[in-house]
Amino acid sequence: MDFPGTTLVTGAAGFMGSHLVEYLIGKGCKVRATARPRKDTSFFDKLGVEYVPADVTQPETLPRLFDGDVDRVFHLGAICNFSTPYERLYPTNVAGVEHITSLALKKGVKRYIHVGSTSVYGGYRGTPFIEDSMRAPQDSYGRSKRDGEDVVWNRLKEGLPAVITRPCTVYGPRCNDGAGKAFSRPTAITAIPGSGRQRLSNIRAEDVAAAVEYLSRLDAAVGQAYNLSEGYYPTIEEALTLASQTFGTKPPTLHLSLWLVKIVARIDGYLAAKQGRIPDLEYDAVQYLYNDYIVDNTKLIKTGYHFMYPDFRGSMQQMGRWYKDQAGKPK
């Protein structure tokens, strides 16, 4: 499937969205980027990307996104944290999907790519998550992502040519939120949660961008869900140690019991709420640290997709070179 028209990217000002916009421009695509109104559009201006402000919670702002020859949509617009209650997540993560998919269906786009989350699976149950695993989210964020997915599954029945993707923990250049920030920038993490032997699933933002674009071109992907995850599953201790080596910070050596981590997270959450910010350590995220969290990527691999960063260790070494290069550039 080819897309000679305009590709619309929602949530384009976010971490993953910005990487996708860059990737699409590199592929020679005509891109229309959207996110909530913002004063600084220099990122998009430098890339020569059309930026159209809109808000998925305000349906009246959305029809103009589909003006002209839009033939493909990547929907990344979402609230992505574990601290926002469901009733505040719903207008964006669920109703927003209703609004965008309705317009995409009316427009008759060739492809709609939904970028969701492996949080729909809930807590680890002893075996790697596959796309057919039961969806049993254990927090408000996961429930909102599941319910947003359900909107897409229903639109498929109405004829929307949709593909659902489920990235796990995303890290990479410019990451400032979510669990991936611990591996994407210098941090002051001084303790290893629990034993540190819990294995993790991660994926570089550049691979999310490349994978969703790749899947958009496969007719066989329509009506399917795909996990997005590297095939290398570092332990928490290994990942934090690699991050410290990458960014030249002191590696954590102290092991902190998870019940203490939860107390710290509760206190941080209270202080963050008072200050109007999302806490660095979110209470609902701690529950994912009690066990392994392994996401199987076999289905994606079988489509023929080849990862740019298949190995977490090699990826972090590249991140270190990128970080040093950025630090050496004039401000």
Describe this structure in words.
The chain is of the alpha/beta class and 331 residues long. It has a domain at 6-176 and 202-234 and 294-316: NAD(P)-binding Rossmann-like Domain (Rossmann fold). The protein is built from eleven helices and eleven strands. The strands form three sheets. The chain has a seven-stranded parallel β-sheet with strand order 3-2-1-4-5-6-10, sandwiched between helices. It has a two-stranded parallel ribbon with strand order 7-9. A two-stranded parallel ribbon has the order 8-11. α1 (15-26) links the parallel β1 (6-10) and β2. α7 (236-247) runs parallel beside α11 (312-328). The longest helix has 19 residues, at 140-158. The protein starts with 5 loop residues before the first strand and ends with a helix. The model has no long low-confidence stretch (mean pLDDT 93).
Please supply descriptive tags for the structure shown above.
Rossmann fold; alpha/beta; 331 residues; seven-stranded parallel β-sheet; two-stranded parallel sheet
